[in-house]
Amino acid sequence: MFETDRRIYCSQIGEGGQVRNSGLVDILQDTSDRHLMEHPVLAPFFRETGSVMFLTHRQVDIIRRPQYGEHIRTKTWTYELNRMYGSRNTLVLGEKGDVCIRSIAGGAFMDMSTGRPIRVSADLIAQVRSYEKLEMEYLPRKIAIPDEDPSIVCQVPIRRSDIDMNEHVNNARYFDITDELYNECHKAKRLRAEYKFPIKHGDRVFAYRYDTEDGCIISLKDEHGKVYCTVSYSI
């Protein structure tokens, strides 16, 4: 189990004075990243082998959005880990101890030099402690794209500011991209993302938006229809 404390500052706040969707994901991502960077078993392994955990999916259940200036505590832990794949919960608590965010994230071990998944040793996995799974609704990793015509199809720009240190679009920036296509994005009570292939600067990316009963699903694809990422909003 790993914990961080921070306040909500203007860098997380967006239109209407609320924490942006990407701001929420940044908080989750930063805590998870620190956990891995400081992990006594995994951090040395990543450094020595040139490998990483590549995020495959994320689910963010929003009970309430923290307020500007609010002190929050974020807790994260691994609840499942095998030789190829791991899953974690992350919990954001408000300054009065109430739950603001419950989340799930899954990732695969990947060799950075080849960009391909790897299988790690059973001995390594045996050294990593797992904790009890958080009580919440666990939706499937895969987001089903509706079998109907999209309500919007358009090309979306990929900016240099979307690219992270791994030379592809950072997982939080996908929400900045798709928020532009959904006017009710700030009302979302649940965010989901399925990451399939990383987008790099210069890639041509097309957004397909499908309206649903409680929100929308936006699939980002290349010009040949290959899916990069699918994002789901539920209000």
TrEMBL record:
Residues 152-206 form the Acyl-ACP thioesterase-like C-terminal domain. GO terms for biological process: fatty acid biosynthetic process. GO terms for molecular function: thiolester hydrolase activity. It holds the Pfam family Acyl-ACP_TE_C. InterPro entries: Acyl-ACP_TE_C, Acyl-ACP_thioesterase_NHD, HotDog_dom_sf. Residues 8-127 form the Acyl-ACP thioesterase N-terminal hotdog domain. This is Acyl-ACP thioesterase. It comes from Ruminococcus albus (strain ATCC 27210 / DSM 20455 / JCM 14654 / NCDO 2250 / 7).
